[in-house]
From TrEMBL:
It comes from the Eukaryota. Keywords: Signal. GO terms for biological process: G protein-coupled receptor signaling pathway. The keyword Signal applies. One of its GO terms (molecular function) is G protein-coupled receptor binding. GO terms for cellular component: bursicon neuropeptide hormone complex. This is Partner of bursicon. Residues 1-22 form the signal peptide. The keyword Signal applies. InterPro entries: Bursicon_suB, Cystine-knot_cytokine.
Length: 141
């Protein structure tokens, strides 16, 4: 037996013991969910010369994805690294576009704009409507 084979067999035994001692990811431990969060959104507008035209802000309630997903790494004789990685991340499965109206708008001197179409600003925002565990690096959606 060569050293490489001995190392591989020992590694399999260690992984098997690790799993039998209750340390493996048990199905159902995933906690990926869609949660409400509040952010302070600031949007600035500039003129053709790059000078600040106005800035608008607001406290906005938005959805976010948060939680953990089951992933595993196991020895493999097929892969170049010697390990087969099965990684899952908590991320959006569906995004929805939403229009947010910012109501606190100021000119470059910091004076609040209270008249006309300059007192508010509409901003398009895409936020998660549904979150789930997805294969890491899978950006096909």
């Amino acid at each position: 037996m060569d050293v490489g084979r001995i190392y591989f067999k020992i590694l399999i035994v260690v992984v098997t013991l690790y799993k039998t001692n209750g340390y493996s990811n048990i199905p159902g431990e995933e906690t990926c969910e869609t949660l409400q969060s509040e952010i302070n959104l600031l949007k600035e507008e500039f003129d053709e010369l790059g000078r600040l035209h106005r800035s608008c802000s607001g406290e906005i309630a938005v959805n976010k994805c948060e939680g953990s997903c089951n992933s595993q790494v196991q020895p493999s004789v097929i892969t170049a690294t010697g390990f087969l990685k099965d990684c899952y991340c908590c991320r959006e499965s569906y995004l929805k576009e939403r229009i947010i109206t910012l109501t606190h708008c100021y000119n470059p001197d910091g004076i609040r704009l209270t008249e006309g179409d300059m007192e508010t600003m509409d901003v398009k925002l895409r936020e998660p409507i549904e979150c789930k565990c997805s294969k890491c690096g899978d950006f096909s959606r």
